[in-house]
Design goal:
mainly alpha, two-stranded antiparallel sheet, 21 helices
Length: 486
Amino acid sequence: MGSKKPNKKIDFLAIIRYLLFSLLFPVITSLVLVRNLPRTYSSLNARLKPIGIKVNSLPNSSNLEMLKDMAKKSFNKMFSNCKSHDEIMPISGRCIDSFGFHATIVESLETLFLLGMKEEYQTAVEFLYANLKCDRIEWVNRREFFSRFIGSLIGTYLLSSDSFFLNIAERCAQVSMRIDSLTKYPRPYHNIRNGSSKERMWINGTALQDISPGMPELMSLYHITNNAIYMDHVRRILKSLPRTKNVFYHSVLTIPRGLNGTTMRRMDGFTVGFYRNVAIAHGLCPLEESGFVLNKTEPLIQIIYDENPEIFYPLFEASLNSIGTKEQFVFPYLERLLNEALDNSKDLEIMVKKGSKTRVSGFRYDATLLRIMLFMSSNNRRESLKQRVFDSINMSYSSLSYNDSFVGLKHSNSGENKIDDVQHSSILGQWVKVGAVLLNGNEFSKNCVFNERGHILYNKMLLENIQHHIPNRCSRNGTIGHNVFC
């Protein structure tokens, strides 16, 4: 006789626990993950509340509306069609990779923030949160990488206090620094992803213009983080320069194939950039090594100043830039060049359509001369210069608009203007930004120190407020993530 199987009691409590665990575990896991993700911008009004500046209370004006419309059209055209690239060609509709790091979107951040354009700013930030990683960046021009990419991230951090941008700036800058450490002088091209570098094909040696890029940005990171690795890296590069008495650095370090250094070209637009970056870095943090370099500028300038003073505008801007920093670099011929620069700026046709009275250079929205007027108007209260800035931007707004975007200008050998089918990233990185800075008042604008591409590297007001608002959580080893003012 077969035994009866015992009746199994159903454990309803266990079933309920199992069901609750199955339902709640994914929810709890998601909450934990979300908590550890970078902050999003669902509450963008709070994120757009500026530190030290009144972005959200800009007075309505025709200048503000013009700047916003120019920024909105150029940003939306780029983002809608070429957001994974650097720039757009509005006429042909092609996307181009000029730089290798979403240049237009990255360079737009400060301008969109300063103009209080919440929707566009949120769009840019969310895209960069998802796509901006150092290990995705391959070959870049080192100069553009620091001046456009790292500079923009620093400026955006100073304005927004969002640590995401500082963290990316530090990580990527430190990769480039490690690549620099493998050679005596920095090489002009870096592969951020695999840590390699290469020289220019046409040069036998190191070009001076490739040595100083990054110095201002690294000194800015030193100011923000108080991490000495950035200052030490700048000092290492400067110490590697030859220190012969009365040396002309441009003739020693820039030697094309087949030419002797002593017969090399004289100081020009390329080599002036070397001294410009050293001057900005020196203003942010004066070093004995950078002072030695800058002391050599006066005899060089005297040689060719009368031939073409316009090539010294960048160095002149660096001199004005250093007002209010630890140590101002005083540019020789300051008053004379100032008068010539302001006289040149009166001719809007020259500024916007030719870029120069003495040479044909095209127009790619470089704002060096606008920033000179910005400094003079902010420090000397010259209202006429402010309006000249807006008039210059307005001329490009009305004459270079194309199908809800903007183009540049280039020149043929015959001297005729031709449309340059590129919406240059500098339109948002530099050109419109000068107007946005002006609208935020003299106190803000006169405290700004810009790099060569117009990105904000230092502002005393912003740094003081960041120090006040952000808790001091310092790491002991000074690695990536080293917090503000440790």
